[in-house]
Design a protein that fits this description.
By secondary structure, the chain is α+β, with helices and mostly antiparallel strands. The chain contains 6 helices and 5 strands, in the order H-E-E-H-E-E-H-E-H-H-H.
């Protein structure tokens, strides 16, 4: 499916009292709306992903120390990768949330620091890349693996089947 990548002008800000799923949905819609202004006749997809441990939402670490702090909190725990997905087109806006449970192994501080030193954490919600060396941190996944990578494709396909079935048809 052909597509163009456009950087949104939307600025993400935390909203006090907002639950993780609500926050990523709000950010996904904000990103999509900011792009739609420049491309009003196109189908627009906006996505935002975060890592939730209870009601604490972790985004992208600021630096090595922040990555160590986040990964230390996740070590030995089950967290939820939540992604808000927004589809916008003339006449409709649809926003949904995907959630995938990820259980990390019990990790020593030295293991976390070695992982962080490799730099793979940069620019990633929760500070790890499951599709890379971050897979070594993981004990178990329950749900859509691709949601953890950054785009919940199963959810996106369901949304497109409702709104643009010809885009996702596998034929007759």
């Amino acid at each position: 499916m052909p597509f163009d990548v456009v950087a949104p002008s939307y600025v993400e800000e935390d909203i006090a009292g907002c639950r993780p799923g609500e926050l990523v949905a709000t950010h996904a819609a904000g990103k999509a709306e900011s792009v739609q202004n420049a491309y009003p006749d196109r189908l627009i997809l906006g996505v935002d992903t975060g890592v939730a441990l209870g009601d604490q939402l972790y985004g992208k670490p600021r630096d090595d120390a922040d990555a160590v702090r986040i990964l230390s909190a996740l070590a030995g725990e089950t967290h939820t990768v939540v992604s808000g997905v927004c589809l916008l087109d003339c006449g409709f806006t649809e926003v949904e949330v995907a959630a995938t449970a990820v259980t990390f192994k019990a990790l020593s501080r030295a293991q976390i620091e070695r992982y962080v030193a490799q730099g793979e954490w940069q620019g990633l919600a929760g500070g790890y890349a499951i599709q890379g060396r971050g897979a070594l941190l993981v004990e178990r996944v329950e749900g859509d693996y691709l949601n953890i990578v950054g785009l919940p494709s199963a959810l996106l396909v369901r949304m497109l089947e409702r709104r643009r079935p010809a885009l996702v048809s596998i034929g007759t």
